[in-house]
Amino acid sequence: MTNNELRALAECSRKGDVTAIEQIIASASGKAEFQDYELNSAVSQLIRSRHYGVLDKFIDKGFISKDLYDYDRFSSTVFHALLKPQISTDQLASYLVWFKGYLEQIDDINEEVGGTTLFEYALQENVSITLLKVIAEAGADVQRMDQYGQTLLFKVCSLRMQPVDRIVELVDWLLSEGIDPNVSNVEQKTALHMAVDTIKMEVVVKLMDAGADPGLKDWHGESAFHYAVTRQFNPDLLELLLNYGVPDFHGVNKQGENLLNAFLRMMPSDSEANLRILNLLLEQGADPTAASLWYQKEKTGVDWLSERSAATLQEVMERGYLDLNYLDNEGNTILHKVCQVDINYDESKARDLYKKVKYLVGEGIDPQVENIKDKKAVDYAMEDNLKVKTVEWLLKQ
């Protein structure tokens, strides 16, 4: 069959000229001498006109193959027309009967084509859930895991740029099919990791209600809490996860860093959202005095707080999460630590450091306290010319 014959067939189908359709098929060669897009167009019209008998003849002639291994990909093939039929609701029932009948003739419906199965391709292409269920009924394995250890649930939770309502419905269905939400892929990521990373709030709730564990860690040592806090900086996600569990604040990731310190290091600003995350972590028991590694060097939350803005430090102090009388192992007060911060030739940081120093002293930290090296906070400030205003102010105290 040629491109011209397919075009003629589509036109006759549109007009409902059954006699002409039969004549074209009878005279056409059994050899496929057409482009995929012409076959797609003809098949789409045959579906709209409900000429399923003609489609059966296409199957018999091999134009629509029952062996998925005949294809090197699903995209741009006849499956585009089959999976996204342009039909009205009242035509759907009859189409589903024919479509299921075709699927049941396929040799191996779970055959991978270009690294993906027909069912997985349909998921990615935003195919209706009604058709997806028909594919499953025809034998597609919804429990299947690919070579990377990814379940269909994992893949659905990874989808982007698709309607949230559809994703939620798919997740509901796959969970009802018994897929375990805690199964991890080769990177030890779970469906919950992906739902959090793509900010699917409703999906997170569905997974958690089905027993998803927010404390499971990927191969970087990061849990869903890490994804909410240090990837998305999303307090709503964090609060949602906290309704189901509490982070392991003592655990560390592969870099040796705990959750609070990772957030404080990466905290992009003192926005309301970021301060809310910080308060949620501290409320749940995160310890700002706990040390963890960063580039093989121990740093505490206090160290990172000393580098953050005056507004952030003030928020933590005023909520009582950090004792004003705090001293580290070397006898450094919070004031010492603030004055030790490298401002990297940044005037704005020098000004903010000045605010932090005035605030801490105003709260009662004694600037005359010396650490075990017999150094006061001002001694560290003197090491940077940009901190001159801070030095002058401290010397007057």
From TrEMBL:
Q: Does the keyword Iron-sulfur apply?
A: no
Q: Name one Pfam family in it.
A: Ank_2
InterPro entries membership = Ankyrin_rpt (IPR002110), Ankyrin_rpt-contain_sf (IPR036770), Multifunctional_regulatory (IPR050745)
Repeat (ANK) positions are: 187-219
Q: Which UniProt keywords apply?
A: ANK repeat, Repeat
Q: Which Gene3D superfamilies match?
A: Ankyrin repeat-containing domain
Q: Which domain of life is it from?
A: Bacteria
Q: Which organism is it from?
A: Sphingobacterium puteale
Designated name of the protein: Uncharacterized protein
Q: Does the keyword Metal-binding apply?
A: no
